[in-house]
Amino acid sequence: MLKPNEGNKYVFKNIHFNSVHLPPLNEVAHLLHLPNNISGMITHAQSFYGSDVPVSKSSISHLSNQGVGKPTFKKIYTWFKSLSPRISEVFNLEVLKKTFKAARVGSNASTYYPCMYGFNCSKKVIITTMN
Prior knowledge:
Blueprint: H1 25-31, H2 38-49, H3 57-62, H4 70-82, H5 87-90, H6 93-104, H7 109-130
């Protein structure tokens, strides 16, 4: 399970490794007018799914910078699990291994792997729903 930082807070800061080959994902997302951090993703998901996360807007904002405590993190995690596609369908051990390996060597691929896998999972759900 995910562990809190030294201040006992859960923080999801953008990963930014210097690279001439692969720009940071948050910069690409910003250029495409897509959410470029966890707070933006939560706000977008609330709108898309029509489901409000049971925490304050300030707590959502704190998730990207100063962090939130365990009770707030658990509420956000539980809310994410209630969305479609289910988190158990999106979680993939191979993608997780690639992500950690890329992060260890300082590659921006560590953000692209889970993003593209999640995008492909969403695409499958949309195609299945349309048929």
